[in-house]
Amino acid sequence: MHSIPDITFVGGGITALLSARLFAIAGANVTIIEKSRIGQESSWAGGGILLPLYPWRQKDAISQLTIPSIQAYPELAQTLHESTGIDPEYTVSGLLMTELADLDKARDWCAKYAIDGCTANPAQQKIFPQCKGRSLYLKDIAQVRNPRLLKSIKQDLLQRGVKIVENCSINKIQISHNRITSIASAAENFSVNHVVIAAGAWTGDLCRQLFAQTKQVQADIFPVKGQMLILDAAENTLDTIVLEDDRYLIPRRDGKILCGSTVEYTDFDKSTSEQAKQSLVDFARKLFPALESAPIIHHWAGLRPGTQLGIPFIDKHPEISNLAINAGHFRNGFAMGPAAAQLLYEIITNQPTSIDAGLYQFSASH
Ligand SMILES: Cc1cc2nc3c(=O)[nH]c(=O)nc-3n(C[C@H](O)[C@H](O)[C@H](O)COP(=O)(O)OP(=O)(O)OC[C@H]3O[C@@H](n4cnc5c(N)ncnc54)[C@H](O)[C@@H]3O)c2cc1C
Asked: Which tens digit of pLDDT belongs to each residue from 265-299?
């Protein structure tokens, strides 16, 4: 028997929600404290593609979390849909990369992780003529619709008795004998048993603030702005995710098409710019001329929790015995989320881990 501690999460994005769900299923008393509303930050802003962009160009630690996550999604989405009535719109739309200079590396990565990859089919080549040379189509890659997935997990957690505290920004911590005894906002104080900080892009600053007088948490996590827009289009205008030169189109089930995204190192500034909007819409219309007159419905920005290599921190604090972190998922919080949550759960409950936990420790390269 492993003991399941009662647990408090600081932050209410996809990372905390997926992690909290595992503890709730195991029977723990779970509390989530969120400074604004659940799932309104990076997790709301993202595209929901369940694969890193060009994963073979990234550290293997990212694939190690991605592969079990993408295997977990079909059942997760179905269970959430059934339990809450909210459909996360898990959709196997496939992912087409039009031209790859490193196609051989991509094929090796597919073979290593048993991901089915082939060249673009004739219909795709007709729409995207640049595909003829070095394209790669991954037919099994899926997407979720972020706001719907977040809503359904929140509802599922409420049904499981998880306490959700919104509009509450944690800014203080009490430590006694190497244990956190309470955490607090300006207005409220919470006694805690176990604490997980999953505060996305704010995690680095928050840890520096909370632990200024005590044991520092060495988690170099910083905000990286991404701007994105959504175009109005009729159903079935496009049926696959298309990726070219680090930018992409994601067709949703209702026909609307997301276009993303910028990568900007601008601190905690979430403003959008005309220049980014124009560059995204130019990309969308050049890649897929059927969007020539498609109106832009919405344009927004979110703050990704950046790390130098895109590898998250999933670890217990070496000295504070009841503190752990699950943060820094950068561009892949959805693609890595379920396995990251599972790893955190195994670490906190002192179980053997299903993947190499060392890759995500404070002492590892991130
Ligand atoms: C434009 C864009 C496109 C993306 N596309 C994809 C994609 O296609 N696929 C993919 O896998 N990933 C994608 N991502 C990345 C993904 O969205 C993130 O990795 C993921 O959302 C991170 O989740 P999180 O829960 O760690 O952070 P967040 O969702 O930011 O949640 C952290 C939460 O902590 C709260 N918080 C902060 N400080 C405090 C405090 N002091 N007290 C209480 N609460 C606090 C915040 O308010 C926030 O709600 C994209 C991101 C962006 C911006």
From this structure: 999 999 999 999 999 999 999 999 999 999 999 99
The string of pLDDT tens digits covering residues 164-192 is 999 999 999 999 999 999 999 999 999 99
Cα–Cα distance measured from residue 119 to residue 135, given in angstroms and rounded to the nearest whole number: 5
- Identify which of 263, 334, 360, 366 to mutate to test ligand 1's pocket (most ligand atoms within 8 A of the CB): 334
What homologous superfamily is domain 222-306 in, according to CATH? D-Amino Acid Oxidase, subunit A, domain 2 (3.30.9.10)
Does any ligand 1 atom lie closer than 6 A to the CB of residue 66?
Answer: no
According to CATH, the superfamily of the domain at 7-50+149-221+309-360 is FAD/NAD(P)-binding domain (3.50.50.60)
Which amino acid makes up residue 234?
A
Which residue's CA is minimally distant from atom 4 of ligand 1?
46
CA of 54 relative to ligand 1 center, distance in Å = 20
| Beta carbons within 10 angstroms of residue 30's beta carbon | 27
Cα of 198 vs centre of ligand 1, distance in Å, is 9
User: Mapping DSSP to helix (H, G, I), strand (E, B) and coil, where does residue 197 land?
Assistant: strand
pLDDT at 1 over 60: no
CA–CA gap between residue 272 and residue 19 (Å, rounded): 31
Judge contact between 283 and 243, C-beta under 8 A: no
Is the minimum distance from the CB of 167 to ligand 1 under 6 angstroms? no
| Nearest-atom index, ligand 1, CA of 15 | 25
